[in-house]
């Protein structure tokens, strides 16, 4: 029996089926390819990664430097996060969302992605379904599947502003549905649900007994006087079946510091903390102290960044809509434009006829050295996502290249 088992194992997979099934992060892959081409001396303009081009504000960096000099931060700290940071996150959530939180309901994570995965892993049993408004951030379905869940796409196209309706959610509901993922402002579309839409969707979820996981990482990045609305605050009827995800990456230009958090009922946080204690233990203390300075400090820096983002947003949307075959709704949040390029598919461009947005994105990168993320990364084909979190000069150059190149489509 032992020899038979050994022989069987020797012909088995080197990588487990569960991990092998995970798709690579399309946004990071596009960004990595663009950076590699730049390193090789090619003048690539990268619209791929959602990463502010601003440095982290100096007062946050100073807090990290000060922390690095203190021996107490050279040691292990509580897996759930430094108590002072958890208290600051609770205070910040009340300040920004009007949602009262006890520090014991906060788990500090290694970036927002860990908060996403741990939330699904804590709540889902095998076969449980998650309603996933689509277009979605590329990590969500992979995190759901890795946790044993089943993502159920609910697609909303540009004709409805990329905003799903209660009627669509109701049509996708099954006896296996356990969670609704709610993201506003949205990555990849920049869509923002109104207070009325948010409450309507939240009340529907509460009436069905669903959990709601709400990703609020772009809460401070809205434009045109469009308000951010936390579904947790707007719908108290959800009770303790709501999980808030957030982090410092986008608001404070801190993508590389890797600090996020989840806020939930104490039993959920305790379970997720147990998981994190075995997976990674505490987030780096220096990063936590930097995050403390960020969330406890003023929003002056983000207000300054928003001025630049707003200017770039308007320039990008106008530039894209000037291309025949491209339609780009004006995003009201985050720092992405999600352009409908279905009007270009099948047309001849540079001697080729791209049939999908993936083929079109590959052609754009090859011919004019502009990196965009195809819609396949976020749901159906036929769209491209462009981040306007890059510099004004690069943005203008990239859009000009797209106009010239795509303008030859026939």
Key structural traits:
alpha/beta, seven-stranded mixed beta sheet, single chain, 410 residues, 15 helices, three-stranded antiparallel beta sheet
Describe the protein's topology.
Elements: H1 2-10, H2 17-20, H3 26-39, E1 45-46, H4 58-68, H5 83-97, E2 106-109, H6 111-123, E3 129-134, H7 139-146, E4 150-155, H8 166-172, E5 177-183, H9 195-207, E6 211-215, H10 231-234, E7 242-247, E8 260-263, H11 266-279, H12 285-296, H13 300-321, E9 336-340, H14 357-368, E10 370-371, E11 373-374, E12 383-387, H15 392-406
Parallel strand pairs: 1-10, 3-4, 3-5, 5-6, 6-7
Antiparallel strand pairs: 2-8, 7-8, 9-12, 11-12
Helix pairs in contact: 4-12, 5-12, 6-7, 6-11, 13-15
Distance between the termini: 66 Å
Number of separate strands: 12
Indicate the radius of gyration in whole angstroms: 22 Å
Question: What are the low-pLDDT stretches, counting only 5+ consecutive residues below 50?
Answer: none
| Helicity level | 40-55%
Query: How many H/I helices?
Result: 15
Instruction: Name the shape in a single word.
Output: globular
- Biggest sheet layout: 7 strands, mixed
Order of helices and strands: HHHEHHEHEHEHEHEHEEHHHEHEEEH
Strand order of the largest sheet: 2-8-7-6-5-3-4
Content of β-strand: 5-15%
Assign the structural class, choosing from mainly alpha, mainly beta, alpha/beta, alpha+beta, or little secondary structure.
alpha/beta
């Amino acid at each position: 029996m032992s020899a038979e088992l050994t022989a069987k194992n020797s012909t088995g997979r080197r990588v487990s089926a569960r991990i092998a099934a995970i798709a690579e992060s399309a946004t990071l892959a596009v960004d990595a390819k663009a950076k590699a081409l730049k390193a090789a001396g090619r003048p690539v303009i990268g619209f791929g990664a959602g990463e502010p081009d601003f440095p982290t504000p100096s007062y946050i960096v100073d807090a990290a430097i000060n922390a690095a000099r203190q021996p107490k931060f050279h040691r292990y700290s509580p897996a759930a996060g430094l108590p002072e940071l958890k208290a600051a996150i609770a205070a910040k959530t009340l300040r920004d969302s009007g949602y009262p939180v006890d520090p014991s309901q906060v788990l500090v994570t290694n970036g927002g992605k860990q908060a996403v995965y741990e939330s699904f892993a804590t709540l889902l049993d095998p076969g449980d379904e998650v309603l996933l408004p689509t277009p979605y951030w590329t990590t969500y379905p992979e995190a759901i599947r890795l946790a044993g869940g089943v993502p159920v796409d609910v697609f909303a196209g540009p004709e409805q502003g990329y905003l799903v309706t209660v009627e669509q959610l109701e049509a996708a509901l099954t006896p296996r549905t356990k969670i609704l993922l709610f993201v506003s402002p949205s990555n990849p579309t920049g869509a923002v649900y109104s207070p009325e839409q948010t409450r309507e969707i939240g009340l529907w979820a509460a009436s069905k007994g669903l959990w709601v996981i709400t990703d609020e990482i772009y809460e401070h990045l809205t434009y045109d006087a469009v308000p951010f609305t936390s579904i947790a605050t707007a719908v108290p009827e959800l009770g303790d079946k709501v999980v808030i995800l957030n982090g410092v990456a986008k608001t404070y230009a801190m993508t590389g510091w890797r600090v996020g958090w989840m806020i939930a009922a104490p039993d959920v946080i305790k379970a997720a903390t147990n998981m994190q204690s075995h997976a990674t233990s505490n987030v780096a203390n220096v990063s936590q102290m930097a995050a403390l300075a960020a969330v406890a400090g003023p929003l002056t820096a983000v207000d300054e960044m928003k001025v630049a983002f707003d200017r770039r947003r308007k320039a990008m949307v106008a530039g894209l809509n000037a291309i025949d075959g491209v339609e780009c709704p004006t995003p009201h949040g985050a720092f992405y434009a999600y352009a409908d390029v279905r009007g270009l598919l099948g047309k001849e461009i540079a001697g080729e006829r791209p049939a999908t947005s993936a083929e079109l994105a590959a052609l754009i990168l090859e011919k004019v050295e502009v990196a965009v993320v195809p819609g396949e990364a976020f749901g159906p084909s036929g769209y491209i996502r462009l981040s306007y979190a890059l510099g004004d000069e690069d943005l203008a150059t990239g859009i000009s290249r797209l106009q010239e190149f795509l303008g030859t489509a026939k």
